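Support case: alpha-methylisocitric acid complex. Customer-provided input:
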Amino acid sequence: MAMNLTHKILSAHLLSGKLIPGEEIAIRIDQTLTQDSTGTMAYLQFEAMGVDRVKTKKSLAYIDHNTLQTGFENADDHKYIQTVAKKHGIWCSKPGNGICHQVQVERYGVPGWTLLGSDSHTPTGGGIGMIAIGAGGLDVAVAMGSGAYHMICPKVVAVRLTGRLQKGVAAKDIILEILRRLSVKGGVGKVMEYVGDGVATLTVPERATIANMGAELGATTSVFPSDEATRAFLKAQRREADFTPLAADPGAIYDEELTVNLSELVPMVALPHMPDNVKTVAEAGPLKVDQVFIGSCTNSSYQDMMRAAAILKGKRVHPDVSLVIGPGSRQVLSMLARNGALADMIDAGARILETACGPCIGMGQSPCTGAVSVRTNNRNFYARSGTASAGIFLVSCETAAATALAGVLTDPRTLDTDLTVKLPEEFLINDNLVIPPAEPGQEDTVEVVRGPNIKPFPIGKALAEDVSGAVLLKMEDNITTDHIMPSNAKLLPYRSNIPHLSDYCLSPVDETFPARAKAAGGGILVAGANYGQGSSREHAALVPLYLGIRAVIAKSFARIHRDNLINNGILPLTFADEADYDSVAQGDILSLPGIRAAIAAGSEEITIADETSGRTFTARLPLTERQRGMLLAGGLLNYSRETAN
Ligand code: MIC
Ligand code: SF4
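Agent response - structure generated as follows:
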């Protein structure tokens, strides 16, 4: 049968299950990546599993998020990661080497391989023809220890690209258009597979931008074919040996299809506070702008930076705008430094940041009160920039650079700058910030260094016979992990310190929540649709676990967060009838009598009694056998121990 590319790669890695949407499959994982803000916890969990050396072909530990060292905490975490990586067979990309997704595509991505990363933008690797999936830290720890990852088989959507982008319109505008059409829930349970003549007109870094922001659709991942553009990119990275041509078979079958005509696209912008709140730049109007940020794992490639530099060259940043630029990797920064483009940016008035996530995750450069901040990153969630009153507008590098000069949101097609940037014949290659692991057999010579900021993490308890508790918080649709466990320059240093983080859990929704949860000794959360969208941070489950949250009842869940809840033994229930959401009030006491027996018996319908209103309603809890085992055991770590015995 004619196969799509997703199924080709998945079936070559299939360890168990069938490629039928909705069924559980296990796949072999070739590569893993972690970054520091999820990595400290992932390595603590990996250590708890007692495995000596990773079982993957290559595992990398990047340090790119918490690089603002305002106290000892981050530097201590870096030391822990570097030493724990060395001991267990993992390569460590030190701070300054670049953002994990950018570096992974440049130096390590291999077409046709699988990659699991403890970061939701791991699908960036789809730009180079990988099946690259974001997951919680514990899933990545298990993949490092076993070489396997369990997941629900997704549907495959063909995204047919036709035509060619006009000058001033960018890859970012393609994914913004798809987000406009499908919304932040539109990709849940799906892989977006790019096909059609338009694909060949895009370079690998442009494809990576699209695959990166497929995460904002809620998609499991996105994947592009591996073709001559892929070969040229790999050759220029001196990695032609990693090239394999890959594409869907002619006439391949897809579950859904969507067409985007590149020739018709215009510059787009996502308005605050959701990446699917998309309009054309023309529709958004000439908004006055306070800050522009060009960078992040979405748009910080050499090609992106060169286009921004071309627009800025010989011009002056508008006096009312603060322009900050963060090239995505040391390779990019070093090349810009040598070819003069960096000087063009500096001369125009840009502030240059180190190659890291930086402003994207609120690590510095928080804008002023009420600011309009135009950025090239992928998320504009409420308060994520560190300034809750600011609005973040997401655009391409071209739109961002044009806007920085004009001081108002500007369509880059109005510029006469030549924006043709060819990929270099050869990128500048220097991997000396990537530290190799100890040789096999030498693991014992490495001492793992743990600073005082590293605290034990909570582990779930076996599920009780009955569960009950008060609804501590009732939330709306699209609550993000940035709401559940905010991350900014003040909180990111505490990613290995759950007790400290617990004082801030869900505080963007309700500042009184942490104290109330502690006083009540835990309880239940109620939410609308797409609960837990965004980041892969397991802290959004670990911290509620620490606070005693036993169940979340929502209209629907985002994929990674639902997995993280199950991995930590928290029940992710959905309303069988969404109308019941309206009848549950904050403060109601809910009880789930006989929940353990119901799950053990494989029941998917759970009866919930609202003791306060006297009503009962039904919630759904569809689980695979393995997930059932995890919930009964109180999470994946307990379950793995039980099944190992
Ligand atoms: C993000 O973009 O939200 C992050 C920060 O990269 C997260 C990971 C984290 O919370 O540490 C992600 O995307 O998974
Ligand atoms: Fe870093 Fe932002 Fe990319 Fe997350 S989205 S990996 S914070 S650059």
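The chain has a mean pLDDT of 97.

Case will auto-close in a few days if no follow-up is received.
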